[in-house]
Batch of 2 targets.
Target 1
Amino acid sequence: MSEDRPSGQGNKNWFDKLFSALSGDSDEPSSRAELLEFLRQAGSRLKLEQDAITIIEGAFNISDQQVREVLVPRSQVTAITLDQPLDEYLSVILEAGHSRYPVIGENLDEVKGVLLAKDLLPLLQSNSSNTPLPFTLQDVLRPAMFVPESKRLNSLLKEFRDTHNHMAIVVDEYGGTAGIVTIEDILEEIVGDIEDEHDADDEDDIRALGEGRYAIRALTPIDDFNERFSTDFSDEEFDTVGGLMMQSLGHLPSRGEHTEIDGWRFTVLNADNRRIRLVEAERHTSDTDTTA
């Protein structure tokens, strides 16, 4: 019977190895990179799902990432003005489909608080009973949470959990608003893209933004882009618009990075540490005569 047991001489099981690693055994992983590699190898032997390994890696990575790497930039923030009429900001909420909105004064550098869409539900009761409820936007504002661009994501995630906040206003070194960050932005760095019912459908691979700009899903085939805009981008090495960007830049770009290819400027609107998700494409006006 004894021969069925591991001898202990160079024949440790994965649990023994992990315990040794955490105990500081010099023969076992001594750095985070070594530990991740060990987990990848152990995962294949134990038939762990790749998604599980990816989540572990993502959890490690957020300790190195800063808020500035995942924030929604100022130019893409949907905000409500404090003195905005009710019918106007209700239209904004219905169109955007978010659950939280910064409420501002004259501009985004004057954040007065945060509006939760659910706090407007009493208005539905008012309409159904034909009994107007006293309501002002100021009455339902929640305090805004402010964080610096340099804050670590793991620290912010803990703060979100401790304070029960789901969104924070990101401020730059001068005290201005750089953008917003949500708990979903951090979780997506760990588990990957989280899509809800308000995210764009697959049919909206290419969406006009106005003024010659377009929001393009990174997985949009290059053939579809060529057909839409009468361009002639090659798909010999990469099949998608995201791949075209990576080929041009030579690396996986982060949010805000851009590249110019044959008269088009491509900018990353949304990405995580594993892939590009959304790209903005803008045709150069000086080159419009070269495309249909």
Target 2
Amino acid sequence: MELTLGDVAVRHGVTQRAVQQAVALGQLAPLRRVGKAYLVDDLAAQAWMRSSSRGRRWSAVVREAALDLLTSGTTRLISGPEKSRLARRLRVMDARGIAHASGGLGIWARYSTVGSAPLDAIGPSDVAKSELGILEGESWLSFGRTEDLDAFEAEHDVTLSADGNLGVVERSEPDNRLARVLLDAYLLGDPRVSAAAAVRLEECASAL
């Protein structure tokens, strides 16, 4: 669904200024621009709100270390006191706080597709729903990762659409760590998947 920034503000109970700032800071990826107005798809707005929280965002290194810790309980990216501090902080964070500190959804686009567009599955398309206590089933929406959105659009028969059946995040490399999969499922999943992924992510955090 295509939303104006005003629509996003009303839907999520925030000021239009807050939505404008999110777009300006790259926290909310607009689908397209019409004149001076930005239009956003509802999934991007949903992911932004699910990662909307107070506090500083992590650097790239700390983010990756946090995802390592949440997945396996250890990391080689940081050590000593910094690692202990991060683990202590994670233990008391909820899914929204983790999503915010991790930088939210990132660079994103939504498409209508004709045929298949091969991608590395992410989030709701990658998570084992049975492990979240949810029955497996086919969804009309698919989610994936590509290294470059411009190249992806040039190489595949896709059209930007706020009602599209494919959501794509731009990331340099595949990432199948449990914490990354859960985080994307929390940001992009339907209410059941999002809630279940949040619980599982918070369990990983509290176990540190």
